[in-house]
Amino acid sequence: MGFFEFAKVLMVVYNLLILVGGGGLIAVGFWLRLTGDVLGSNALGVFSINAINTIKVDIYFIVVGIIMVLLGFLGCCGAKKESKCLLIMFFSIIVIIFISELTLGMFALAYSTHIKTFLSSWGKPVLQDQYGRDFHFTSLWNMTMTKLDCCGFNNYTDFIGSYYLKHYGEIYHPSCCENTTFICNLENAQNSMIPGCFAWILRSLDERLYILGAVAAGVGGIETGAMFVSLYLFCYLDKDAS
């Protein structure tokens, strides 16, 4: 078997991997869509909801995944039929996808840093002003603190001087105290030192970015190999035709 035949087989293998990679991106997209609230959107209020609605990362992954599945079939057909038209079409599309994935990766990295910086300065003032004042905001935070076993944004000190304590007495949310037998007051909260929800949110974001990065790196490696092989097959057929 000559190198050209080997390249054809390699092209088919790469496209099968692209099919699998596309399926993986679709799965990740639906996973993000189903677990959007686990990213902390319920606890972060309007900012996080607007951010998620603007970026639509889940939709991006699903669409790119579907395109990659179709692209896998296109590449297999181009290699099997030795069609220059299909091969150059395959190469052009996969280059565009590869560049768009790199762009999204850089954007996600920059945006995650922006989120962390923004939230670190934004969380406490908003919590002090809105908790106990806005019913929806208060309900979301109560649910978050109960579910995650966390207290406030950083810790119990976020509530000191807040609207809630001024108008409802010096009583903290039960999640701020380990011992729920007694009233959760300042002394009980100080002794408990329950961590804030911000640490959990950062950990959750980092875990998801790691998963997304690993999937994107694997798919990108497959795409790079497929680009070189498809370009070689096209050049070989073009040279043979001339």
TrEMBL record:
Transmembrane parts of this sequence: 12-32, 59-79, 86-111, 209-237
Chief place where the protein resides: membrane
Keywords (A to Z) from UniProt: Glycoprotein, Lysosome, Membrane, Transmembrane, Transmembrane helix
KW Protein biosynthesis (keyword) present: no
Membrane topology, from the record: Multi-pass membrane protein
Keyword Transmembrane: yes
Localization terms from the record: Lysosome membrane; Membrane
GO cellular component, one term: lysosomal membrane
Family membership: Belongs to the tetraspanin (TM4SF) family.
Self-association state and partner proteins as the record states: Interacts with SLC19A2. Interacts with NTRK1/TRKA.
Role of this protein: Structural component of specialized membrane microdomains known as tetraspanin-enriched microdomains (TERMs), which act as platforms for receptor clustering and signaling. Participates thereby in diverse biological functions such as cell signal transduction, adhesion, migration and protein trafficking. Regulates neuronal differentiation in response to NGF by facilitating NGF-mediated activation of NTRK1/TRKA receptor tyrosine kinase and subsequent downstream signaling pathways. Plays a role in the inhibition of TNFalpha-induced apoptosis.
Protein's recorded name: Tetraspanin
